[in-house]
Design brief:
It contains 2 helices and no strands. By secondary structure, it is mainly α.
Length: about 80
């Protein structure tokens, strides 16, 4: 704020640099906002996939598991 009150060449240059920094910061935030929106959309789209992948792995594990031993049928002494 002081750079906008002072009336020297250096104060004017500092004020210009401050304004440029704020403009650059605004541009940076807007570009990150677009990226954040895209990431949110992708996350919502893929959120359902996690549960399906878990089911697939569970089915594969059941197929890999050795069969459980069964007892023989009949009378044993």
């Amino acid at each position: 704020m002081l750079s906008s009150v002072l009336n020297s060449e250096r104060a004017i240059q500092v004020n210009i640099q401050i304004m440029r920094a704020f403009v650059k910061l605004k541009e940076l935030l807007l570009s990150h906002k677009d990226l954040a929106i895209k990431i949110d959309k992708l996350e919502k789209k893929c959120a359902n996939h996690d549960e399906k992948i878990k089911l697939i792995f569970e089915a594969i594990r059941q197929l890999i598991e050795p069969p459980k031993q069964t007892r023989a049928i009949g009378f044993h002494t």
